[in-house]
Amino acid sequence: MAFVGRLRMRRFLAVAGFVMALGAGGVACASEEKAEEHEEYVGAAEVCDGLFAGSLAKMVEDVTGHKWFAWSDSTGMENVVKALKEGYASGHTWARGADLCRLDPEGAKPTDWDGGVKYSMYAPQDVGDLGLPKGSELYTMGKQSEVGRSGASLYFECVTPQLKGSRDRPLRILGTFGRGESDAPDTRAYRDTNLRILHAVSLKLVKELDCEKNGGLTKTPVLTPK
After folding, report:
1. Residue 46's pLDDT is what?
2. Please, what is the Cα angle at 69 between 63 and 74, to 5 degrees?
3. What pTM, to 2 d.p., does this model score?
4. Does the structure show a pLDDT above 60 at 154?
5. Within a 10 A sphere around the Cβ of 159, how many other Cβ atoms?
6. Which of 101, 122, 188, 199 could be disulfide-bonded to 221 (CB atoms 3.0-4.6 Å)?
7. Distance CA 5, CA 167 (A)
8. pLDDT band at 135 (very low <50, low <70, confident <90, very high)
């Protein structure tokens, strides 16, 4: 999964003739002011439109070793839902998906960072594949879950009225969380925290998709090694 890259602030341009410019100019200025009223870097509770607000913010700070991240707009969830639906509609066994949130810490070089949350559609044969990255472990949550020093993965299925035919062919969702370059220790507690973060965000996704029974995910994470 690739979470590398800097966010660039988007600006709005006013276009029109002389008469329209008089009326549109104020709108354009207001749009620019609205787009720039945020800071370039925000706390973990504010990044990605508050995705990690509450207790998750401290977890993100702990596992990444950072407190400030590049501001991001609120389109992450919309992009993920759209990508998953398009992947499902394609009839392919897997699809690339989209980033839900990139964690780009202040002071880090783009080439040094690979942190954030991403979702894609996995192929049936991907579950049960024991070709895990070195040092990673299987957990029992979902159809399959994995934890490691650098992050966690969670496989689950979604039956939803938003996707015709999903009762017979559920949408297969793979969520991944990467904490990026971090000095946090490689302990059971930190590994579990990686999965806690991913589980909590995945519950937000299944709510957006109207997945029956939360896509098989319990309200509290199951942190049991397999």
Report:
1. 95
2. 110
3. 0.82
4. yes
5. 19
6. 199
7. 38
8. confident
